Amino acid sequence: MNREVILKLLKSPAQWIEERTGVVAFSAPLLFHHVPRSAKWWYVFGSATLMFFTIQIVTGICLGTMYAPSASNAWESLRFIDEEIPFGWMLRALHGWSSSAMVVMMAIHMLQVFMHGSFKFPRELNWITGVFLLLTVLALAFTGQVMRWDQDAYWGLGIGAAIVDRVPVFGDQMRALMLGGPIIGGETLNRFFALHVFILPGAAIALVGLHMTLIIKNGISEMPKPGEIVVPSTYREGFEERMKKTGVPFFPDAVQRDMVFCGVCLLLLVFLAAYYGPFGPGGMPDPTLINTNPRPDYPFMWIFGAVSLLPPASETAIMLVAPVVGIVILVAVPFLANSGERAPSRRPGMMLLAVVVVMAIVALTWEGVTSPWSPVMDGWSALPTPTQFVKGRTPLQMQGAVVFQFAQCRNCHELGGFGGKRGPALDEVATRMSPDQLIRQVQQGGGNMPAFGKNLNSAQMTAIVDFLSTLHPENEADSAIPGAQLPLPIKSPLTMNTVSSGAETPAGIHSR
Amino acid sequence: MSDNTKGETKKEGCVGCGCGGGGGGRPAAVPQDARRGFMFKIGAGLLGIGGALAAVPIVGYIVGPARSRYRNQWVDLGATTAFPSGQTRFATFLNPIRQPTDGDAAKTACWVRCVEAGKFQVFAINCAHLGCPVRWFEQSKLFMCPCHGGVYYQDGSRAAGPPPRGLFEYKWKVESGKLLIDAGRLPGLEESV
To answer: Which of A118, A189, B128, B145 has the most CB atoms within 10 Å of its CB?
Structure first.
């Protein structure tokens, strides 16, 4: 047989299929559409997001073959996948790490689109489908955290339920709808399972399809150049002309960079998954095991931080209204700035906004991770008192150091860099407060400190204040008022009031 | 595109009548259009009614949990002697509102404070801020929350932090030497336990 015959034989089945399906005709524009020559490394993040999404679908289906979506054995089934199923742990690790990677890539992609003004005419709907994709992916991340069905999942749901419960009038019904009943239980997990494996992935696939269709329809935006202004009435003609003249086909020209970047991302993903392993599951989902410290996954850490830092008086309003306002603003972006300059150098206000938003999210995430507002629950029993604070002290002062630990002061106050950060560090408290002020603060609390007046007897109070009065830099005197004795033990509320009336809490101490 | 147009042209006037496009001398166009419009309306009507009937169970199934009134029940926490006067003790019970698939999630914890013999306060485990489990510290007589730092005094009143109110309290009663609480629903701001 000669070459032509072989080629013909190979070609004819392909032709047969193409005649009946039109698959090549359908996908040709996807592959060969012209993209700007200037589209270089900035344009790879969307592809990487899509790659991670594909990995989520594949690994998700695999995990679906073993995961038991039932509150009574979901946790055990995850342990079983991790420990007994060949590569089970790796599948869970890939699914977990790829989920985080998808959120990160999506955020970078969105930031790039925002900074390059690519959302302007005619790509408004590209941006809006992207916003809904972001929301869908975040919802997938949250429901995925619930699938772990460990203590973090249980109490995370509790936090979600408590927020929903604050909705005026319908809060109770909405909470029941979310939880599938009046408690966090079996129906809750199954509701979130249906969301995580049916509804949200379906929505995401549909949105990805729409997003891609819009990319083909409107083309990839060019790199912004100062002075190249978007004018809606003439933009399309100019763009199509430029693509014909200077554009390059997506395949095989532009796709090279996407392939290289996605390849690096994929290798990194496999490394992270293999080296660090799967996320959880954490402690058993038994709500009577209360020695737990619930924390959300990283994509939600900034929300956890924000919720903790809101002023209590307005937190309900902010928690309920802020997400709606945020989504409305995101959707409105392409309508607020539909034409004009795209170059970052010509849009300093927008750049500042992007920087502020990114910094706010990073800062709130950091706050969430360190959560200085959380008491260190075992600070009083687990942390040693640094020797410099007890060396050379009198027995009474030593007794005070014991009371200081015993009364759980350390859960909220640092000594020598260890302890809670809820209240101020007390290493040098004697330089800020006199013994009278110390007594008042411990007795009555204030700022953001509980009153210990009823919980410490007068001997303990004397000891603790005597100890606190010694907390100052070396070579400085104790904070006792010159020439005065330490106050006598306080016996009645009357004395307490007398003591307190004269001394004001210094500014900055114990304020939230 | 052009193929379709040709096809339609060929069959013009006889869509679906089965006469093979010959016409057969019948006045084709007008009655066919009328019949098609009628069929469309019937079809839309049937689908509408059928859809509505099918939607009732679907919507009812999904929103059912929000509508049904789950009732709290009296739950036995054990003999009152297990709760010494002046102390606050940890207690657990199986939630009376539970489903077969709840697993451990049906277990519930609470804090029982015996103010004096025969007088109790029973606090929900959930912080009034965002529902995390509060822990009791006997030495300082405080409840502390690990999430956002809510702190409560031994009587459940708010001491510090973001909670908008004190701890949620269960109704309690003592019957034949046993402490009973009225429990079930997850406590929340809209409706306490």
So the answer is: A189
